[in-house]
Amino acid sequence: MLKRTIALLALLAAPVALAQDLAQYNKALSAFNEKNYEESARAFYEVSNASTDVDLRSKAEYYLAASFQRMNLPFTATIYYTAIVNAGPQHPMHLKGVEGLVAVQEVLDDDLLIPRALNEAYDRYADAWATLPTEVMSRVNYLVARQSYRRVKMDEAKQFFEAVPSDSGIYHRAQYMLGLTLSDPRFPATSDDDRRKNSEKAVEVLEALLKYRPPNRKDLDEVHQLAMLGLGRINYNLGDYGKSSEWYEKIPRFSKFWDQSLFENGFSRFQNDDLGGGLGALQALHAPQFVGAFQPESWILKSTIYYFRCLYEEGRSALAEFDLAYGPMADKLRPIIAKMDAERASGEKGDPASYFKLVDTEQSEQIPQAVLNWVRQRDRIVGFLNSLKQIELEKKVLNENSSWKAAKMSQEVVTYLDQNRSGIEGQAGRETKAVLREAFDSIKRFADYAEIIRFEISKGEKEFAEKAIDQGKLLGKQTLYRPKIPAENWNYWKFQGEFWRDEIGYYQYTLKDACAR
């Protein structure tokens, strides 16, 4: 009889517990609908942890994530949306979870955690995702494509970028990345002719992108500038240096990519036999306004241009400027590189996050300022910095909410955030290590080039001396004309040692030829 009573009580308790959970859920839903997201988050958290009803608990998990999202806590929302996505289609709110995860990715501009989660889930649940809204699926395709590109799965990346329709808010970015994918030397090609056709197709894609101007499209101008930069590079690789230079010169002055376009345009002009134009581009790049730029190769190019006109003294002067600017940078980086080498030799991984902490500051005693600026401007590093900053902001909100702390919600969520922070710092550290080594190796490589140019200059001077050629007389016989004026509404102004803002980017040298031809 006692066993029957206990069993009866258990059977009666289940409906009672379910009724209580339902009442709590409805209360949370009312708070959510009334936009009291602080209260709805607390109540949904309790239902998601206490309810034994799978359907009720699943809905509470989704609305908990949605509450965090609407409170402008996108990283916290990401934790719960990701769990729903990973649970698969058996989770009643799976598709809504995918939508939520895509939405917070756009807010965070996260290029690590969310794209990786969606990429891993795509292979398992692609069929179930076929009913997602078109825009959501477009963004999923774009994020998966970027993951494929990063993993050098070029054919796969191309297919996913092409799957983004032209009415999508992400179309312009997908088309830019499609152009990059087609022109990437790692894109499959069976011959040089195929590779050239791929690059020509990339030119078509990027030129069409520049004509794509829908209203109210986020970051369209920046993507257009990236497309111009890409067109400059592709045409350079195709050997059309004149067209390459035209594209570089379309990038707006003082824009985000202007310094890079000046540097690369110097090469295009040099290859196009416009030595004065090449020096003019470098003159702008070496203005005080770009004092914090990391462009070691620019001085090597400058000395090379002078060398081709047998202006050996000027070539040596450019190399001396390289030594003065970049020699101390290499010396400062050397202990960090030595530490990396020691870790590699011993087989120890070390602490990747320690490298990221070196650049998690706007000024550093261990990293040269130009290198620090260069590292911190890299898109992935910017993303890591923003993500870590957002995590700290959200932790502060969680820790300061008394009702959440009383429900023990703050402690759990902060633990999750700290786990994500640790993962991001580790990935950021590995990225930072690679970029710092790239900077050091660049300086070392161009220092080696500098020695080669010095040798060639000395060799040229020796040949002139052996042939008794007087370079001074040779130069004295030549008349130095002013540069060609592009149009009637342009004015000529001789550079007198001062850099004026409205002149930078328009410099043009005229050079005498000291070679005995």
How would you explain this protein's 3D organization?
The protein is mainly α and 517 residues long. It has helices at 2-33, 37-50, 54-70, 74-87, 94-108, 113-125, 134-150, 154-162, 171-183, 192-210, 220-237, 241-248, 258-271, 275-285, 296-308, 312-346, 352-359, 369-376, 379-399, 402-406, 409-466, 471-476. The longest helix has 58 residues, at 409-466. Helices cover 71% and strands 0% of the residues.
Morphology call: elongated
For the report, how would you describe the main beta sheet? none
Query: Share of helix among residues?
Result: over 70%
Roughly what fraction of the amino acids lie in strands? under 5%
- How far do the termini sit from each other? 118 Å
Oligomer: single chain
Provide key terms for this protein.
about 525 residues, mainly alpha, about 70% helix
Briefly say what this structure is.
This protein is mainly alpha-helical. The chain is built from 22 helices and no strands.
Give the topology:
Elements: H1 2-33, H2 37-50, H3 54-70, H4 74-87, H5 94-108, H6 113-125, H7 134-150, H8 154-162, H9 171-183, H10 192-210, H11 220-237, H12 241-248, H13 258-271, H14 275-285, H15 296-308, H16 312-346, H17 352-359, H18 369-376, H19 379-399, H20 402-406, H21 409-466, H22 471-476
